Amino acid sequence: MAQSITDLKVGRVLNHDGEPYVIIWNNFMRTAMRKPVMRTKLRGVISGRVLDKTFTAGEAFELVHIQKSNAQYLYKDDDNAYFMDSKTYEQFPLPIEMLGDQMYYLKEGEETMVTRFEERPIGVELPPKVVLKVVDTPPGVRGDTAQGGTKPATLETGLTIQVPLFINSSDSVKVNTETNEYVERG
Q: Are 74 and 86 in contact (CB under 8 A)?
């Protein structure tokens, strides 16, 4: 089946120079008198290397099949985050540098989706929104703004986001994992 450059979406994994790369950013461009192009930013699944690649219409590329399985996040140390497969109870590490900002959304003991390439764990797939507890935020003062406002809040995982003034310490909030933004009270 012929593939179109519009199949290159964020989160898809493709084979580039014999190594799997995940698309972490894309931008479709069409200009007059030229072929359409898809500009992408790719992160090497194994190496962690980030590179920019532009695909033109009609250029061949190979999407890679990624397996997904449920796993429980156990704990982390200085270098790795440890998970346990929900079916086999096998424990395995993933380097913290590979997970990056996704670590801010993982709570000990919670289930998550682990992605694998050729049976090797390569990352996690976060839900679109997660509920986290606020551990520190300054008190909101009534009348500070005419339209409502925001203040910084530190969450239980160490993530700092902007929340509405009515949110207090020990409240739970729902956070968008793609934009790092407050959505609603949890």
A: no
Half-sphere exposure in the Cβ direction for 11 (13 Å, CA): 8
3-state secondary structure of 93: strand
All residues at 6 or more sequence positions from 129 whose CB lies less than 8 Å from its CB, including other chains = 174, 175, 176, 177, 183
Give the number of domains in the chain.
3
Q: What are phi and psi of 5, to 5 degrees?
A: -65, -15
- pLDDT, tens digit, for every residue of 35-45? 899 999 888 87
**Number of separate helices (H) and strands (E) present in the chain:** 1, 15
Q: Which of 21, 48, 63 is the last residue of a domain?
A: 63
Range of the domain at 102: 67-125
pTM (two decimals)? 0.71
* Whether 77 and 103 share a structural domain: yes
CA distances (Å), origin 111, targets 68, 169, 185: 13, 25, 21
